[in-house]
Automatic annotation (TrEMBL):
Group of enzyme by EC: oxidoreductase
Top-level taxonomic group: Bacteria
GO molecular function, one term: oxidoreductase activity
Signal peptide: none
InterPro entries: CE1759_FMN_reduct, Flavoprotein-like_sf, FMN_Rdtase-like_dom, NAD(P)H-dep_FMN_reductase
Keywords, alphabetical: Flavoprotein, FMN, Oxidoreductase
Organism from which the protein derives: Streptacidiphilus monticola
Pfam family, one: FMN_red
Name used for this protein in its record: FMN reductase
Membrane-spanning residues: none
Length: 212
């Protein structure tokens, strides 16, 4: 069985950044969950800060070049995606949005995506629902139910309430993504077979409704 290709897109601007830190924790948690499903992971990280100039050129020319072309291919060919952005002015960063503008409209069709974000305060957490989730829904991705937001206070040292809650959200979102990427053996095929076995022709259903 081939390893699952998991791509992490992170739009942090500083180095190091809390956005990259959150991305790494989500990737590791997902890898751990997939190991429980008996699946290996081939992990790739796309740092958008390193592609900013190429992204700007692509928006002007319409042609991704060099490392941007490689990043686009990685995301397009991925089995699953973890996308993490800092929140500026109550929405995703311009760099984050510009990268997804570069992708082909069909690149994320049916692809499982875990959306996450970082921000200075918890007030920015709503951006996950009013900005990120609609973006990926428009691109026809399958977004996991749990989106993960990390505010500055969530990075507390030790077993603080914020850090414990963040760890719980990370684990829950990773488990949801792993379930989409690697359903338990036999569950999906057998479900499909049962659905096909129970399919009754429409004419037969109409006949059954006629009075005897």
């Amino acid at each position: 069985m081939n390893p699952l290709r998991l791509v992490v897109v992170t739009a942090g601007l500083s180095q190091p950044s809390s956005t990259r830190l959150l991305a790494d924790r989500l990737a590791e948690a997902t890898r751990h969950e997939l190991a429980g499903h008996g699946r290996e992971v081939e992990l790739h990280v796309v740092e958008l800060r390193d592609l900013a100039v190429d992204i700007a050129h692509n928006l002007l020319t319409g042609f991704p070049a060099g490392k941007l072309r490689e990043a686009v291919d990685l995301v397009t060919d991925a089995d699953g995606l973890i996308a993490v952005t800092p929140i500026f002015s109550a929405s995703y960063s311009g760099l984050f949005k510009s990268f997804f503008d570069v992708l082909d409209q069909q690149a994320l069709n049916g692809k499982p995506v875990l959306a996450a974000a970082t921000g200075g305060t918890a007030r920015h957490s709503l951006a996950l629902e009013h900005a990120l989730r609609p973006l990926f829904a428009y691109l026809h991705a399958v977004v996991v139910p749990t989106a993960v937001f990390a505010a500055s206070e969530d990075w507390g040292s030790g077993a603080t309430v914020g850090s414990e809650e963040l760890a719980h959200r990370i684990d829950r979102a990773a488990a949801e993504l792993a379930t989409l990427l690697a359903p338990r053996p036999g569950t999906e095929p057998s479900g499909q077979q049962d659905a096909e076995a129970e399919l009754i022709p429409f004419a037969q259903q109409l006949a059954a409704l006629q009075p005897r």
